[in-house]
Amino acid sequence: MSDDRTIVVGFDGSPAARRAVTAAVRFAGQGRVVVVHADASAPLRPGFSWRETIDPHRTEHGRATLDSLLLGGNDELADANWDLRLVHGDVASALLEIARVEKADAIAVGTHGHGVLSSLLGSVTSRLVREADRPVIVVPIT
Question: Which of 4, 15, 25, 106 could form a disulfide with 135, with the two C-beta atoms 3.0–4.6 Å apart?
């Protein structure tokens, strides 16, 4: 990987996701970080594109979650080249699709660290590791 990587990172507002954003900025170097918040309560339509129109009734929480990233002391974003995406649908599918569209070098996600290996990699992380056609950076709880 060169020093100008594109990293797609999942963000749900949790401390684990904040650590994943920090790691994504480091891995991106002089490249770009695409921060993605997916609303899993809304299923993706066939032919999903992250550019699809977002239902205005479901965006308030998602926007607040993304805003919390900017307001929550994530100073590493101050000097980074980053972009935000708010999408509806399955989290893993959204991250995989956005990574494909953005030609990302990797996908970064945080893990909540529940103590046993099967729980350590949640369903989203497990699916990404199985299905991604690019590296998946799993940022552990510290």
Answer: 106
